[in-house]
Give the backbone structure.
Amino acid sequence: MARDLLPPARMSLPEFAEKHRFLPGAGGGRGEPWRNDLTPYLVEPMEAADGAFNNNTTVLVGPGQIGKTVVPEN
């Protein structure tokens, strides 16, 4: 029972996304899990956002519909 009272293990934002994040499926289903290997260009911005308390601003610039919005969602 004491194990349930311990704080969760610390992990980076990309690790958390792969373990807990699911992309919405068609028709509102559970969808599929987030995979960093499908969007490797988003790992570095997620790591920068994860350490945001050390940064004043994190900027991600790129073309539309490449996944920029999911970085803060993760």
Notes: The first helix runs from residue 2 to 5. Helices lie at 2-5, 13-20, 43-50, 70-73. The two ends are 29 Å apart (CA to CA). The chain is about 30% helix and 5% strand.
